[in-house]
Each structure stands twice: as C-alpha cells, then as structure tokens.
Sequence to fold (368 residues):
Amino acid sequence: MEIIYQKAGLRRVINASGRMTALGVSTIHDETGKTMVEAAQNYVVIDELIDRVGELLCPFTGADGTCVTANTSAAICLSIAAVMTGSNLDLVEKIPDTTGLKNQVIIQKGHCVNYGAPVTQMIRTVGAIPVEVGCANKVDKANIIGAINDKTAALMYVKSHHCVQKGMVSLEDMIKIAHGHDLPLIVDASAEEDLKKYIAMGADLVCYSGAKAIEGPTSGFICGRKDLTDAAKLHYKGIGRSMKIGKESMMGLLKAVEIYTGRDMAAHEAQLNATVDQMIQALTGLPHIQVGKSWDEAGRNISRCRVDVESSCPLTALEIVAALKDGDPAIYTRDHFANVGTIFFDPRPILPGDVEAIAEKMKKILEG
Ligand SMILES: *Cc1c(COP(=O)(O)O)cnc(C)c1O
Fold:
C-alpha cells in the first residue's frame, strides 16, 4: 500500500533500528492521533493548557511538578535555564545572558554524548557553561566534588545507551554529592522507559522524550521539583518561545502517556520477544551469518535479533548495513557494533510485513 510519504515521492523505510530521530522516532497509536486532530481543531488558553497537562502528568511520574516541552533537547535547555534564574521574570528575559548568575553545569566526560546533536550544546544554548569532568572512560567522585564551586548551578546525569557504560560515577552518588552541596541534579532520561524511577531516587528534575519509549508525538517533558518546573514554564516568556510546543502535541503527549502506562507491559514485552524470535527464524540458515538473541546494553528489558557476520563472508557487516540502507524499501538496522561484525535488528519499530522484507533482502545480499 502506498502511504503518504511514498505519494510524496519518498522511499519506504523499514526501521529495525530503534527510536531514531533520523527515521521519525516512533509511530503513534490511533487514539493519540484522534486526540491530536480534535485538539488541533479547537482553541484553548495556552497557559492554562500548559499548567493542566503538567498537573495531569504528575501522577505518572510521582513528581510534584511537570513542564511540557517540544522535545527532550528543549527539556534540557529549560531545566538548566530554570535552575539558573528561578522564577524571576527579569532574569528569564535576559537568558542567554547569565551575567552574575551561577551558570556552571557539571557533567561527566563519558556523558558528553552526541545523540544527533551534542548534549553540551543544549547546556550552552541557555547561556550555561558545561564543565566536563574526569576522562571519557573514567570519572571519580573526587572529580565531581573538585569541580563544584560558587558558580555551580547544577549537576547533570545522562542515562543513555549513548554514554560510556563503565567507569562513571553512579546516579546515586551524583544525587548524594549534589544534595550534599545544596545543588539540584538534572537527569536526561530521554529514551528511558521507567517514568518513576529517577524521581523516586531523588533527582530534582528529569527530562523525558514524549516520542521515544512513550510513542507519542514529537514532544517531551520535565518532571520534578515544582519550584523548578514552574521556573521552566516561565521560560516560555523568554528563550523557550523558540522551543514552543503546540496544543495538539500537548494533548497527544498526555494521551500517549495514558496509553503507555495503561498497557500490559508483560504482554507487550512478550509480543516484542515473539517478533525477535520471528526475525531469528527468518534469518537462520542464511549463509555467512550466525543468528541469535541479545539483551539491551543499557539494561532495559528489550531483546533484539543479533546477527554476527562470519569471517567467510565476502561482505563486511558495515557493507551489509550499507546495502540494506541503499534499497527501496530502505532497511535501517541498529548498527553501533557493525564495525566489529555484529548487526542488531530491533523489534520495537517493526511494522507488519517488515520481517519478511528484511529476510528477503538479507537473502539477496548474502547469497549474492
Ligand atoms: C534522543 C535523546 C535526546 C534528544 O531528544 P529529543 O526529544 O530528540 O530532543 C537527548 N538525550 C538523549 C540521551 C537522547 O537519547
């Protein structure tokens, strides 16, 4: 069937990669779509909507306050702006000028990742200065404590598969250090599935994507201390205006969170696992590869189909990845480990018919 993108002359995409901004992140539920159409076709007082959606989101995270945002990047910007200015409109209107404010944000070197843009650039956007501490593969508590001074505005922790997964100071310790110095701790939990964990651990602000795990429209939110989420909202009268979120996205986010938290997680995970088994079965027996199952490197409860390319194969894993992307449909895999010969297929974004199309293309590539 031709869908809207093909009618516009674009290639069909099979996403076996994950929640990738480069491919459109996720697909929304029908109910979320209906909600967005109704919201988009009517008027509302936007300040009241921002407050109300924030209020309605609080029970899902256990936080006292929530500020809805255009995406996680905006959530990071507004969180950091909020801890610098508090609810002082004069200071809000001056951002990114932070003259006289505490404006340094401490972040571990192994957390200074590029998720499509550098996370440290979001810190700079609002006039703060990222203070990168430790080394790329090793950070000690002493590095964090040693960087704290009277210009420190916050500590930031990035929870992501993009980060170095060893040698970093734990979130527990980061929270202890922050609170021991009377500083807020901000977590970037963009793609995380657990909406309560970091608030329960004591993080002051947590930034989530509304489109990744939650499968809502392009959106995000900051949850946490109400004084700080209120300050973040005030930035919509300042630098946050350039990060405006639409009324339909706010209502779509709320609906998507309701659907996401209401679903039977065990059944959902079993279904994803079944898709992985289906992929394994479809690819097993093709020449030059070993097929199996792997679990998420960042500890989430996600299994994936794993393909190890044997040394007998005339093509490298990187060449196979490139050949998969090159066709129509274009097939995108999870290719962070293709340089060492392993390709992953993620079940979450797989749509009906995709497994068969992937197997057919792999057969063509491998049998030459
Ligand atoms: C995806 C991602 C972001 C950015 O999220 P957007 O909603 O696209 O702005 C930030 N941090 C991490 C760790 C991410 O994975």
User: Anything to note?
Assistant: DSSP finds 14 helices and twelve strands in the chain. The CA atoms of residues 336 and 346 lie 12 Å apart. The longest helix spans residues 265-283. The domain at 4-24+264-367 is CATH 3.90.1150.180 (Aspartate Aminotransferase, domain 1).
